Amino acid sequence: MNPAFKNYLLKTTQSSDCQEVEVIQSLWSGYGKISRYQLVDSPLRTVVIKCIALQQSSAHPRGWNTSNSHQRKVKSYQVETHWYENWNQRCTAACRVPKFIGSFSEGQDQWIILEDLNAHFPLRKQQLEFSEVKGCLRWLANFHATFLGQKPTGLWEVGTYWHLATRPDEFKLIEHQALKSKAHRIDDLLSQCTYQTIVHGDAKLANFCFSENGQQIAAVDFQYVGGGCGMKDVAYFLGSCLSSADCELYQNELLEFYFAALYEAFAASSHSVDFSELEEEWRMLYPVACTDFTRFLLGWMPSHQKINAYHLNLMESVLSGL
Q: Of 193, 206, 238, 270, which is most buried, counting CB atoms within 10 Å of its CB?
């Protein structure tokens, strides 16, 4: 461990010593790792540390080790650090996140120290029960309600990792000409909609943590948090955990649930916006958000399993309406 960071960690956590007990995962493209550390003589038993090495990586799993890719990664970690330092504490228990403990940087290396969620949210899931899908949608609804109308200062101006302006390399490779010609119009519909919030930006199943009974949920990974329409998170999340057939079968029920949860969160807040107008706008933008993500996939990895009948049908419907 870097000696300067170790001194910072021990001082911040009031520890006499620490030891890495588990590498939770490597960061995408070889930019570092997330580890669990055990602390000695500290009020905290363990912490999770995200260790980020910002020198350019050549290890992208899909071969996208370009300058654009590197600069996007560098900014994403700067955004994530800013999120934890300045925004994270605004989240309520209804959109639970790990508590921020500290951050440290030296040269091109960065560290973020976070609460270890495993004490209360020990489960990571690859498949969900229907009630757990709704639980994640409730988390998103509360997150979107919490940050409705707030300017994403220090975050991505437009959240999500597939935002068109940050993906010029992938855009060039799209072979679907109708989609390519209307991609900027689709982006404008989402980025310039009346009702904006802060979106998680990478709200896939792998970034949710669950309690033992699956009913309490927390979320992690805020590299692509920023401004946008809440439907971008909803569309991406449902595509991450449901098959094409299940998306088709349950779309209406799950959107009804999300908007009911969003309304409940609004009712408990001081928002003065017209909820019926927001709901009408965002419902119209759900297929647009699905199409926006499909646009990214068709340039990034045209053989991806998420390019399925459900999303292609939505795309064709959106394109024919533009």
A: 238
d(CA 132, CA 50): 27
Residue linked to tokens 């976070």? 114
Q: Of 5, 7, 35, which Cα lies nearest the Cα of 21?
A: 35
Domains of the chain: 3-115 (3.30.200.20), 130-321 (3.90.1200.10)
Q: Which of 52, 86, 85, 84 is nearest to 70 (CA)?
A: 52
**pLDDT tens, residue by residue, 115-159:** 999 999 999 999 999 999 999 999 999 999 999 999 999 999 999
Q: Are 85 and 19 in contact (CB under 8 A)?
A: no
User: How many angstroms separate the CA atoms of 194 and 93, rounded?
Assistant: 27
Q: Please write down the long-range contacts of 178-184, taking CB distance under 8 Å and 24 or more positions apart.
A: 178/319, 179/291, 179/294, 179/295, 179/298, 179/315, 179/319, 182/319, 182/322, 183/295
Closest CA to 223 of 49, 31, 57, 83: 83
Per-residue pLDDT reduced to its tens digit, 236-266: 999 999 999 999 999 999 999 999 999 999 9
Q: How far apart are CA 221 and CA 54, in angstroms?
A: 17
Cβ neighbours around 106 below 10 Å, total: 12
